[in-house]
Amino acid sequence: MQNLTRRSCRYISRLLLLVPCGILTVGNLTAAPENVEKVSDGLLIKVGAFQVELAVINPGTFVNPGTLCLSVASGHPPQRAASSFLAAADSTSQTAWTVINKDGLVGVGTQAGKLLMDPHTGEWTLEDGRGKVLIPKCALFDMAVKSAATNSEIALSMGWNPGQPVNVYGCGNGVDMLQQTKAKTGLGNGRAVLPYYWSAAGYAVLAVTADDNKPAYWAAATNTDAIVWTFPGTSADLYLMPGSTLKAAASAYADLTGHAPVPPRWTFGYLQSKWGWTNRAYIEDALKHFQDLKLPVDAFIYDFEWFTAKPDYELPPEGVAGYSDFGWNPVLFPEPAKQVQDYKNQGVHFVGIRKPRLGNLDTLTMVRSKGWDLHGSGSEKDQARDMDFSNPAYRDWYNRQSAGLLQAGVDGWWNDEGEGSFTTYYYWNLAEAEALSRYEPGQRLWTLNRSFSPGVQRLGAAVWTGDIHTSWKVLAQTPVSLLNWSLAGMPYSACDIGGFKKGVLTPELFARWMEAGVFFPIMRAHSQHNVSAHFPWLYGTDALNAIRDALNLRYRLIPFYYSLAHETFETGVPLMRPLVMEFPDDPKVANLSDEWMMGDSILAAPILQSGGKRSVYLPTGKWYVFNTNSTIEGNRTLEVAAGLDEIPIYVRCGSLLPLGPVIQHTSELPGGPLELQIYPGRDASFTLVEDDGETTSYQKGLARRTVFTWKDSTRSLSWECAGDYAGKDCFQAVRAVLFASDGKVEIESELKTSGLLHLP
């Protein structure tokens, strides 16, 4: 399955032009101490009771040429763990590296960096390719380390610049800010804190233990200029990725843990979820409301009720006879395949909830006899029935039970409450990927998960922030969680728009939450069974109209978002970005999270508090008010007031923004000409990517890529199309819209293989 998550062959081939082919080892160890030995991919050094390897990770494994690894084991040579965090090998590229033996230090180096150690003292350091120190010299071990014979964990010290505060990015959503000073690794309800971060010193780090379910964690060392990583067990792998920017770190981290494939196109539309769909008539009445009220929607997401009449929360540990784990609830789906196909014909896909546990007594007896359960691990009583998805035999059985569901037309899975172990979501998604490959080969997997560990993104997983409350405070906190997950390697995230748990969802709060959702990677509303459904028509005319406008804008942005998803697949850089990712030299945005970028063009600053007012900071440069020729010089803070149907949105000078027409679901694409908005002031380019939206064939090059180029000095727009895809969903015409200082200029043309327009 992991072959489905690598970048396209064409993109890899282009990258390989930048990476020397073959393994180059120069330098020698003639004068090195006896405790230093050259091994196949680096150096082995004995330091007291420990053995340390400085390595270029498996030359030829990853596209990124700069990842190095420091590995430690007690009493024996390190053997890097075969971790679920790491992507499969890519044998098409190899990394050039060199042995270093100079000035009392030994180590390994690539074009991107050098990992060096003093073999006498164990002090080590990391430099970039130009010799700049990224990690200052520091003793390898924390003072608390025990002897190898009794040690149950390894603590590795990493030097930190003296006098500088510990601030890193990308750990996950353990705190409500972008910069983090500590992170206790773990998963929870809508919480994912990973053994990863990027430092502004110019490197990223991923820590891997011998057991992924006992992940490493870090903290600033007391009274020392160091960070200490603690590794449960007797071995430690510290993957080090030189990278001067968050974008460079995102690319290196994706190379290491796997690139997120492009999700199905329908997942970029609006997804309506709820707990408590009561029957077939209720589903079809909701669908009719969306259609009659001209509210775009692309999926209904169903809770327990789609497969069982009653939730399993009150079941005993042994389960109950007759419980349905893999069936359909006939009250909602008396004709499953027919209904699912009928709804899909109307543009609405099916996503059903799944739990990591079973409820049927006979099934539980069988699987426990085979040792397929997690033996009651975890704190929740329901986890006594959790299954061990890391067991291939269980995954095979689980997949066979899922066959009928997939063949009936299930389009995606909603994986809930899988926090029984750190890797449950990974292996659960692996099972679902294997089942899809077996029964619906070539289709894209899409799942929505309540948490994640490194690497899950390469399987087609998305995440949401769990069972949140309904309040303005929670709305205001949501963007930082999603941005932190973007920086942690998970580009596709969502929240329960409107909040899941009880609270006062006023029309204003719901409308503003939906408007913010326009600029989330996944736009999904959800609600608990004992609150009013989060349907747009239940909150008054003003809110309904504002929500309709927001949904129409979301759908117009799909060509832009979908092309960004291809960029994410190729580069690892997420769609939703904190401003610090685009403006790293601006100290005012270092910890700013209540406004953010979509790609490198749109700055979204939705209203996140009651009253319709907010402050907006615009970084240096010229900005346009979206969809107008009104410009604002940046490096300033604006005080903005917005009506209920207005969203503060700004576009960078020198941007091309592809927008589609207003449609009711993505199956209606193209629906008319592509509108290419031109925000002048600088030269600009944008690559529009189109494919079938459903299969993995884009990974084999079956896509149309249209490169639009704007020359500001001549006010000319040109384009070149390439690629073999020519489906009926491709745009056939383009309407160029220039927001000139003296007014808006529009010209329409056929979207042929190439073209040139001069805008007056």
Task: Using the 3D structure, state the CATH architecture of the largest domain.
Answer: Alpha-Beta Barrel
**How far is the N terminus from the C terminus?**
51 Å
Integer count of domains: 2
Number of strands: 42
Overall geometry comes to: globular
Helical region count?
Answer: 12
Supply the helix-strand structural class: alpha+beta
Supply the CATH superfamily name of the largest domain. Answer: Glycosidases
- Biggest sheet strand order reads 1-2-3-4-18-15-14-11
Name of the level-1 CATH class of the largest domain = Alpha Beta
Quick tags:
eight-stranded antiparallel β-sheet, 12 helices, TIM Barrel, 42 strands, Immunoglobulin-like, alpha+beta, 760 residues, single chain, 2 domains
Structural description of this entry:
There is one protein chain. The chain is an alpha+beta fold and 760 residues long. The protein is built from 12 helices and 42 strands. Strand 6 (105-109) and strand 7 form a beta hairpin. Helix 6 crosses helix 7 and helix 9 (507-517) packs parallel to helix 10. The longest helix is centred in the middle third of the chain and has 16 residues, at 392-407. The strands form 9 sheets. It has an 8-stranded antiparallel β-sheet, with helices on one face. The two termini are 51 Å apart. It folds into 2 domains: 2-257, Immunoglobulin-like, CATH 2.60.40.1760; 265-568, TIM Barrel.
Topology:
Layout: H1 9-16, E1 36-39, E2 42-47, E3 50-56, E4 68-74, E5 98-102, E6 105-109, E7 113-117, E8 124-128, E9 133-138, E10 153-159, E11 168-169, E12 186-188, E13 191-193, E14 196-199, E15 203-209, E16 217-220, E17 226-232, E18 235-242, H2 246-257, E19 270-274, H3 280-292, E20 299-302, H4 336-345, E21 349-354, H5 361-369, H6 392-407, E22 412-415, H7 424-439, E23 447-449, E24 461-464, H8 472-487, E25 493-494, H9 507-517, E26 523-525, H10 541-556, H11 558-571, E27 576-577, H12 579-582, E28 596-598, E29 602-604, E30 613-618, E31 622-625, E32 631-633, E33 636-641, E34 649-652, E35 655-659, E36 674-679, E37 684-690, E38 704-711, E39 716-722, E40 733-740, E41 743-750, E42 754-758
Parallel strand pairs: 19-20, 19-26, 20-21, 21-22, 22-23, 23-24, 24-25, 36-40
Antiparallel strand pairs: 1-2, 2-3, 3-4, 4-18, 5-6, 6-7, 7-8, 8-9, 10-17, 11-14, 12-13, 14-15, 15-18, 16-17, 27-28, 28-29, 29-34, 30-33, 31-32, 31-34, 35-36, 37-38, 38-39, 39-42, 40-41
Helix pairs in contact: 6-7, 9-10
